[in-house]
C-alpha cells in the first residue's frame, strides 16, 4: 500500500492538529469539519478499508473506539452524545485508503436532522 496523507501525518511529513497519540493510534482535527467537533482517529498501522481488517487487527480497531470515548469524556461532550462513523470504499465516501474513525459532536444528529442550534464545545 502506498503512503497516504494519513501516513504522512503519522510520520510528521505534513502538519496536523493532533489531539491524541499513543503507540498504536493518532487522533487529529479534520480539515473539513462537518460538526463543531470533528476528529479523525486512525491506527498507525496502515489498513486500507474495513474489508482489509485482519483478525490480529481486532484490538487495534477496538482501540480506536476506546480513544473516541476517552476524547468525548476528556473534551466534555460524552454526556450530550456524539457520532462515530467509519466509511468503507468510494461509494460510502471513503476518500483516504487508510481506515479512520470520524468522531463528530457539538450539534444534534437526531431526527429531524439539524433542528437545534449548534453548541460550542
UniProtKB/TrEMBL annotation:
Signal peptide: none annotated. It comes from the Bacteria. SUPFAM superfamilies: HIT-like. The active site is at residue 100. Gene3D superfamilies: HIT-like. Residues 5-114 form the HIT domain. Pfam families: HIT (PF01230). A motif (Histidine triad motif) lies at residues 98-102. One of its GO terms (molecular function) is catalytic activity. This is Histidine triad (HIT) family protein. The lineage of its organism: Bacteria, Pseudomonadati, Pseudomonadota, Gammaproteobacteria, Pseudomonadales.
